[in-house]
Structures are given as C-alpha cells and as structure tokens.
Amino acid sequence: MAPSGPPAAKAKPEAKAESKPKAKPKAKKEEKDEEEEKTKVAAPDREEFDAKVAKIQEGIEKLQKKQQGFTAKINERSGGKDEFFAKKTELRAQLDELSGKMNELQAQKDEINAATGQKREEGKAMRNDLKDMKKSLGFGSEKEIDDRIAAIEYRMSTTSVSLKEEKDNIKEIQMHKKNRPKVAQVKKMEDNLSTFDPGMSMKEKSNAVYEEMSKYRDAKKKVQEKMTELMEGRKEQLGDLPEIMSQREEISKQIGALIQERNTVRDEFRQAEREFNAYLNEQRKKRQEKVNEERADRQKEYDLGRKQRQLEKLDEQPFVSEMTLIEQSMFFCRSLVTTKSSEKKEEKKDIAHNNKDGEEVLLRKEDREEEYFFAPTKGKKGKAAAKKEAGEASTAAKPIKHNAETFILFDKLKLDAPITTADVPALLEKLEAQLEEYKEKVKVWEEKREQMKQDIMDGKEDEEKKEGEEKKEEVEETKVDE
After folding, report:
1. Would 431 be classed as within a structural domain?
2. CA-to-CA distance for 77 and 442, rounded, in angstroms?
3. Is pTM, for the whole model, over 0.70?
4. DSSP letters of 157-185?
5. How confident is the model at residue 245 (pLDDT cuts 50, 70, 90)?
6. Is it the case that residue 461 has pLDDT exceeding 80?
7. Which of 147, 239, 438, 444 has a CA that sits 20 to 30 A from residue 191's CA?
8. Residue 286 is part of which domain span?
C-alpha cells in the first residue's frame, strides 16, 4: 500500500480565539444633519449674478448711446478747431517771447538798482570813516601836530615839572608822532570822497531800461487783446457747447459709477465663489477624514481578525502533514518486508535414521514424487543444505512496484524511493530519524506557543515585518543609487 499523503482534516484547536470587539456606536443622523446645517455655505446664484450684471450693462449701454449723441453735437460745432488752436498757439508764443524779453530787462533793472544802492551805501560808509578819523586825530594838518609837539618840548625845557607830568608829556609826544602819518591818510580819504560817484550814471541806465520795457509792455498788451478777441470769437462759435460738454462729462461720471458697481458685484460673486469652494474643500476634507477613520477602523478589525486567525493557526500542530506523511511511508515500507502468518509453513522435523550400509528408507507417499530423484542420495548433510537454500530463497530481495504518486511523496520527504525490499530497512531508519526530528520540533513549538500568541496580541510580529520591509526598501534604494 503506497502512502496517501497528509490527511485533509485539521488538528483540533487547543484554545478558542478571542471574541471580536464591538464596533463604536455612530453619531445619530439628526445631530449630524443639524451640525452640517449650521456650517453649510450656500452656493452663489449664478443666474442672479448674471441678471444683475446684465441690468448694469444695459444701463451702461444706454448712457454710452446718450454720450455718443453729445459727442456728435460737439463734433458738429467743433469746425475750425485746428485753425483756432493754431492761432492761439501763435499768439501764446508771441506772449511768451515778449514776457521773456521783459523778464530780461527786469533783471537788468534789478541789477542796476542793486548797484545804485550799493554805491550809495559805500559813499555813506566813506563819509562816516572820514568823520571818525578826523575826530580821533584832533588836528587838521601835520603843521598843527608839529606845533603841538614843539610847544610841549619847550614847556618841558623851560619850566620845572614833576616826574609824572614829564612822563605824560613824553607819552603825548609819542602819540602825536604816531598819528602824524594819519593826516596824509585823511587827506587821501577826502580826495576819494570828492571823486566818488554816488550812482548817478546808473540812473541813466535804469531810465533806458525802463523805456525799453515800456515798449515791450505795449506790444504784449496788443497781443493779449488779439488773444481775447480770438477766445471771444471761439466762444460765440461754440454757443451752448460748454453745457453740452458738461452734460457729456456728467454722463461719463454716471458710466464710471455703473462700471464700479458692476466690478463690485463681480468681486462679491467671486468672493462668494471662493467661500463656497473653501466650504466644499472643507467638506471633502471632512469626508476624507471620515473615510480614513472608517478605513482605520476596518484595518483594526482586519488586524484583529488576522491576529485571531494567527492565534487559531497556532492552536494547530504545524507539522501534522509532515509527520502523517512519514508515518504512512513507514507503514508502507513495513508492509513490504512483513510476511503474513498464513503464508508461513511449519518447519518439518527431520527424523534421524540409523541405517546400515546398503539400507534405504522409503519416503512418505506425499513426498515421494517431489524427492524421487534425490531421496537415494540425501543424507543429513543434504537436508541441512536444502533447508538453508529454502531460507535464503524466502528472504531474497524482491523488486518493488511504484507509481508516480509514490515517487512524488518520497520526493517530498527528500528521500529516494526503495527499488527493492533490500532498501527498506535503511529507509525505515531515515524515516524514523525524520519523525524524531519533527517530534522535537513539535516539542519546541509547544514550549514557544504561548509566547508567540502574546507576541501576536502585542503586535510585535507586525513591527518586525514593518522593519523588514523598511530595510528591504533601504537596500533597494542603495542599489538604485549605486
């Protein structure tokens, strides 16, 4: 009988998996609707906005048509405008030229007046300096100073004076000698003052400038009269055109106000759109957060179920299929070498005969045909040899018939399938060794099972798996960089 492989039934679990935790209660729908209603932002009304803009645009277009009518009237009455502005520009150039020349003459006049005033002040200063100089000297000529010095010296030589008076007289003589050169300076100042021009020549220049300015002033007055005549003629030509232009300007202001109103409406609508889009983004964000929370809850439930399945799996002996396959293979091998008791023959007892020379013993009737040719020569030695040959023939190696399945099963055990019955004993030893190894593994598994369960509940297995994936990613990134 060939081994049939591992059994389909699973081993009975030793412990029950923990029950799943109940899901968290959800918020009531009414409370959620009330909260959303409070924070809800209404979408901006595009139709209302378009209607407002269309109404404002209609008003702008009406005013623009009215403005175009005023512009047409202004253009009709604006004939000769180029000639008017050309003449006006010409007269303005003449006025500017005359004003420039008058400004130049006025600058010359200001310079003359400034020079005249300066001369006047200079003459006044010279007179004051001469007066102060004469007052400080006390003498009008050098002769008067010499006479005074001679008088002092005579008095000192003819009269007896005290020491103090003598010192005073000497000091006075020294002062007069020191001031004697100043007399010549006073005379020079008097000569300069007598020849000084107080600005009378400047007055003639000032009068000449004034006369020339009067000529330009008269010419400018004539040009201004022409300018006034030109402006009055233009005013008569235009008639009520200024009023029309004023009305057109007023309409322009109204159009500007409507444009500003339209821009305000657009800005308000765009702001409402931005607020609504922000509200939509916030709602999408909340929905995404909710989806993430639900996904996280589902992941928790999945992780819990996975842990429970892992715990249930730990309750199953992990080497059942291998050990079953080994046991079935051992049974198959033993069946090849075990002889059935029904096939065994009872050994016949040999009877010892003391025959004399030339005597023979007749075989039993049932044995005569089988031993017909050998009985006369059979003795004790011949019977023993025949028995041995019969034993060897019964234990000789016999070929074993296999099919594809038995080869596959032995290949799973990483063993060679027995070709003859002589290969079976060695194969049985290998199978028993493998069975013992698996029994040791089962023993180790039983010792570590509780700790493995605890590690699964604590999530250590997930952490190790995550660390392994991170290391794998780092290795792949390093390979890419290289």
Report:
1. yes
2. 118
3. no
4. HHS---HHHHHHHHHHHHHHHHHHHHHHH
5. confident
6. no
7. 147
8. 43-74+242-313
In a domain, 198, yes or no: yes
Q: Each residue of 273-319: pLDDT tens digit?
A: 999 999 999 999 999 999 999 999 998 888 888 888 877 777 777 88
Domain total of the chain? 3
Looking at the structure, tell me whether residues 68 and 127 fall in a common domain. no
Q: Are residues 107 and 166 in the same domain?
A: yes
Q: How many CA atoms lie within 13 A of 390 on its CB side?
A: 11
Q: Which of 54, 70, 58 is nearest to 251 (CA)?
A: 70
Instruction: Centre a 10 Å sphere on the Cβ of residue 332 and count the other Cβ atoms it contains.
Output: 21
Tell me the C-alpha distance between 136 and 116, whole Å.
31
Phi–psi pair at 210, nearest 5 degrees: -60, -45
**Could you tell me the two tokens for 66?**
């009215």
Q: pLDDT by residue (tens digit) across 350-406?
A: 555 555 555 555 555 444 444 443 444 444 444 455 455 444 544 567 888 888 888
pLDDT at 315: 73
66-72-76 Cα angle (round to 5): 150
- Above pLDDT 90, what percent of the chain? 12
3-state secondary structure of 58: helix
* 311 touches 17 (CB < 8 A): yes
Q: Tell whether 127 and 273 lie within a shared domain.
A: no
**Cβ atoms of 420 and 400 closer than 8 Å:** yes
CA distances from 462 to 14, 244, 251, 449 (A): 24, 89, 79, 17
Neighbours of 442 (CB within 10 A): 15
Question: Does 300 lie in the same domain as 405?
Answer: no
Same structural domain, 99 and 154: yes
103-139: buried (b, 16+ CB within 10 Å) or exposed (e) per residue?
Answer: eebeeebeebeeebeebeeeeeeeeeebeeebeebeb
**Contact status, residue 248 vs residue 65, Cβ threshold 8 Å:** no
Q: Tell me 420's DSSP state.
A: B
Closest CA to 413 of 345, 317, 329: 329
86 and 185 belong to one structural domain:
yes
